[in-house]
Design goal:
Number of helices: 10
Helix content: over 70%
Strand content: under 5%
Number of strands: 0
Distance between the termini: 25 Å
Radius of gyration: 16 Å
Largest sheet: none
Shape: globular
Structural class: mainly alpha
């Protein structure tokens, strides 16, 4: 059995040695600080504030995304979708965050497991052969607003931890819904 201190040391070394993990941990922590600064909470009980915050973050991330890869282009396209209904907006945010993270992992990570997960996302999206608008609707139809909010939170927590398996699990949960799963795929991981 591994000691907790050894486990933490292993994670910290992993973070320091990987550009994606280092940047992702810092970005996730900054997002949480911003949440707390703006409202004094993590919006866990206020769907409207959380939705507004996530849309603002999506706009900021898109504005500063300098990657020009297929996944990055897809993330940018999803961010530009005009969605009116709250369910569509939460689905849009969940899909955007998945694509955004996968794009950054694919381009900046040296971790074999993370790069493998990003490559699998790219492969799954090609096999699904649906438009990004259709994928947003699949997420909307197969999960609740709360599940999508939890999925985004789960991904942020995983990124803040820097723990590779948590990041992969968070990405896989959203992808499971995209490929025909249900909100149980999100809820079981977000719990």
């Amino acid at each position: 059995m591994i000691r907790f201190s050894d486990y933490i040391t292993e994670i910290n070394e992993s973070i320091e040695s990987d550009t994606y993990l280092k940047n992702s941990v810092n970005e996730a922590k900054a997002e949480v600080r911003k949440m707390i600064f703006e409202s004094g909470t993590l919006f866990e009980s206020n769907n409207d504030e959380s939705l507004e915050f996530e849309f603002h973050l999506m706009e900021q991330k898109t504005k500063h995304m300098d990657l020009n890869t297929p996944l990055a282009k897809q993330a940018k396209f999803v961010a530009m979708l005009e969605t009116k209904y709250v369910s569509d907006q939460w689905a849009q945010i969940a899909l955007f965050n998945t694509l955004y993270e996968a794009a950054h992992i694919h381009e900046t990570s040296t971790d074999v497991a993370l790069v493998g997960a990003a490559t699998k996302i790219m492969s799954d999206l090609k096999q699904i052969n649906k438009t990004l608008v259709s994928l947003t609707k699949v997420i909307r139809d197969n999960s609740s607003d709360l599940d999508n909010m939890r999925a985004v939170t789960m991904l942020r927590k995983a990124r803040a931890s820097g723990e590779v398996n948590q990041i992969i699990d968070a990405l896989a949960a959203v992808m499971a819904v995209i490929v025909g799963g249900t909100s149980a795929d999100l809820s079981s991981k977000a719990g």
